Amino acid sequence: MKKTIDANEYLTKSMGPFSFAKLMRGVRTRHDYTQREMALRLHISVSHLSDIENGRKFVSVERAAEFAKRLKDS
User: Which of 58, 20, 53, 19 is nearest to 39 (CA)?
Assistant: First the structure.
């Protein structure tokens, strides 16, 4: 019988721990946006987006929801 593995466990093993930074970069690349295009859509500076994507700045849950709304993304 094959052992099932938890999705989070599998992704952590293959990609490292989940982070909002990785999620933001993934959303940006999935939409094929440059950092400048994404920053304009989010109404933030390119340097702020870079800081978020590199884990140097953090975003509140409310701000993350606002970003999702602006990107029309979950």
Answer: 53
